[in-house]
Amino acid sequence: MALSKINSRAITDLTISADDLASGSITTAKLADTSITTAKIENNAVTKDKVDTTVASTGKSIAMSLVFG
After folding, report:
1. Taking the C-alpha atoms of 39, 23, 46 and 52 in order, what is their torsion angle to the nearest 10 degrees?
2. Can you tell me whether residue 56 is helix, strand or coil?
């Protein structure tokens, strides 16, 4: 019989990979505050094409121009 629920204690480090997750299964609502930090973001993972254009209207456009040119 297939398992319908897995106890979190059965999941050890590195047992679940990105390939195991369905597309769209992790949403911002499911992420804990501070679960994604600068240290966890790979170099060059965020480009100016990936930044929402509304960032410029938040008062952070100067910082964005320093980062992205």
Report:
1. -120
2. helix
